[in-house]
Amino acid sequence: MNLKLFIWRQKSPKHKGKMVAYQMAEISEHMSFLEMMDVLNEQLVKKNEEPVAFDHDCREGVCGSCAMHINGEPHGPGRGTTTCQLHMRKFKDGDSIYVEPWRAKAFPIIKDLVVDRSSFDRIQQAGGYISVNTSGNTIDANAIPISKENADLSVDAAACIGCGACVASCKNASAMLFVAAKVSQFALLPQGKVEAADRVKNMVKQMDEEGFGNCSNTGACEVQCPKEISLDNIARLNREYLKA
Amino acid sequence: MKKLDAKIPEGPLKDKWTKHKQEINLVSPANKRNLDIIVVGTGLAGGSAAASLAELGYNVKAFAYQDSPRRAHSIAAQGGINAAKNYQNDGDSDHRLFFDTIKGGDFRSREANVYRLAEVSSSIIDQCVAQGVPFARDYGGLLDNRSFGGVLVSRTFYSKSLTGQQLLLGCYSAMNRQIARGKIKMFNRHEMLDLVVIDGKARGIIARDLVSGEIKRFAAHAVVMASGGYGNVYFLSTNAMGCNVTAAWKVHKKGAFFANPCMTQIHPTCIPRSGDYQSKLTLMSESLRNDGRIWVPKNLEDAKAIQEGTLKPTQIQENQRDYFLERKYPAYGNLVPRDIASRASKEVCDQGFGVNSTGEAVFLDFSSAIRRYGAEQAKIKGLVNPSEEEVKTLGEEIIKGKYGNLFQMYEKIVDQNPYKTPMMIYPATHYTMGGVWVDYNLMTTIPGLFCIGEANFSDHGANRLGASALMQGLADGYFVLPYTIGHHLADEIKTGKLSVDTKEFDEAEASVKEKLAFFINNQGNKTVDEYHRILGKIMWEKVGMSRNKEHLEAAIKEIQELREDFQKNVKVSGSLHEVNLELEKAGRVADFLELGELFAKDALERNESCGGHFREEYTTKEGEAKRDDENYAYVAAWEYQGTPSEAILHKEELTFNDVELKTRSYK
What we know:
Strand content of chain A: 5-15%
Shape of chain A: elongated
Radius of gyration of chain A: 20 Å
Strand order of the largest sheet of chain B: 5-2-1-9-17
Number of domains of chain A: 2
Number of strands of chain A: 7
Mean pLDDT of chain B: 96
Oligomer: heterodimer
CATH topology of the largest domain in chain A: Fumarate Reductase Iron-sulfur Protein, Chain B, domain 2
CATH architecture of the largest domain in chain A: Orthogonal Bundle
Distance between the termini of chain A: 55 Å
Low-confidence stretches of chain A: none
Order of helices and strands of chain A: EEHEEEEEHHHHHHH
Strand order of the largest sheet of chain A: 2-1-5-3-4
Structural class of chain A: alpha+beta
CATH class of the largest domain in chain A: Mainly Alpha
Structural class of chain B: alpha/beta
Mean pLDDT of chain A: 97
Number of strands of chain B: 21
Largest sheet of chain B: 5 strands, parallel
Shape of chain B: globular
CATH superfamily of the largest domain in chain A: Alpha-helical ferredoxin
Number of helices of chain A: 8
Distance between the termini of chain B: 44 Å
């Protein structure tokens, strides 16, 4: 198929960015979106032009690197899909496709479609862990039974890949779904109870300091989350916060 | 010439590690505060090592080329992690895990290392649970297990099909705690481009800041390499796009021996290639072989019809299917080790029985399991005479619970529903057993330089068993290196603060800068990816699943020519002082072009078939791999001498005192 791409190009944070149009021909429907971007980049290099910078790595939907705002939606059309898992069969011959970076104050731009998501790391450094040293002398793994239901809910929350689509989809650029997923994973397990109060307070404080917006319960984040993390986690975060 | 000493402790196998831990030197807490350690890579091995070393009190500097340590490719591991907990009471023990791993590796790994791995495996599970890793539980709230290839027990712990992710997030959370305390200084988006050796000891690295392009110097009392495997030498593999051999290859060029490069794992269950634009291959977890049955049509006409799209797999009757793994290996059936399953699939496809348009695919079919689970559920629910549809629906629910996200992943890529029609799979490069040579203390041939996880060669011999990579990465990082590095650092307490203003740092930095400038200034006519694709094709066709002398010799020549061409004609756009993905790729492919040759040379030198290394000249009458223990029971450790073709071979003889060397049989 033939496509027209409009891509956000910005050389560095200091430069001004703009949308640039590229005509793509003979794109196979079986290609992934990023493979289509590879084709474009190879053409640009051949023409002595700068290829489009974008983050990507595992290309199987789990590392959370890829982050493109495609036709107004984080990770493009389709639910439960990262950009790397999006295939060109979701588009039609002759389509125009608009590709932009995540837009949020707490995700400053680095180049083209690459943004700085280290604010997510700092939120987790504020308390997203259980304080246990490596020792080889912890109690036997089966000493504390954990209900299957809670273990499953915990892993559903922990499935978050930290891509930032929740922030990118939110009109307030709020990171509530991300923080909620992290808090929930530990809140649902007995190991996480001891530090629960400090954890939630410190992580929320750091989230606010990073400049993420407030949550107004629109629910766009849940819809756009490639791992389909549930809004229930935000309710759990709020409960944990009130308890603390 | 350097002599290889694996430094294996004396004494009975099961006491070696305990005794060694008691005897090695320790560093006092007050002194640890004055010692710096660099850790390159933040996957399971690097992440767990960085966290544990920082907890002990060392000052850690950790490096990742990704934007966060949590994105390292360990995250993509799906199936699980082995541990000899024997929670299932099915006869598991440290010794059995040890034996399975040695046998699975086709008797080409070191007994003492593998036993230690089995010995610490249980602690890994305890540690991860304490960290809050949400492993799968049964209805009684206890940990659940499943089974993997090459073993007869259920010892694999898992979190859905996200085990690697959950374990890595565990390491990452442990790292975060130390980053917050200031004990780990994290350098994201930094790539190591050289090792600095001073007076024969590893003393630091040169790294490029991938955002600013700045070349930076870092000094330390010890350097730990945890930079993963080199499967991307094949261009297409299940590795992440950025996985590379650069850090490992740079230390090899600075004097670290590189061991068994030809030992590479081709994983049997990956989604087949669909076209030339393909950038990577996706793994479907081995856990699927617990319930999926692998088959091709019995008749060539049926296979042709399927290839042409005129026949559907569901239209082929049961008695017209060849469940070739069950037929050839009745004892292990679909759960034979990876190397054996891969070769068997290739064999049927080479004979024309492949089941997609390229003829390079076999079916992985869940219909039997869906019927079996469905019937069981119908019984539990008390349904009398359930319809076939009802049974199927119930069975699909169970399969969804076990493998839901894998099925979803498959459907997204292939656009077919694997609940209704069998999956199509084909082998792809997945893991490299070879790597930087290390002794029992995980130290390389350069004092002060350690290597852990997939980047080293030590524990998997010629073939790795499923769910053992996660085990090894975490064993090295949590429970082995933190002890053994102390033994080396005990001699460093008088060294004092290290400076980066030395002539060795000057030279290393100058050489890095020169190479980078060469790429930018070369102005050739071929892109980096074009070279990488050609290299991948040579490797896959001539140094892939099945190898012979003629092909290997041709491969060596072709790679040499390709490397020369690359030096003349490669084209890299952009500049040095910015985000430049083409420049990053160019450096990595340049190193793959050298490693590829050593890889083929190693395969040519090893005149036997063992594990993932299959030489067509050395087979049994039934076409199975034929090992030569008399002449090849050694680790091939290569010493760099200016070019890959001049590398010198050092042999570490493998001695087996606790297992009997036997022909591997899974029949």
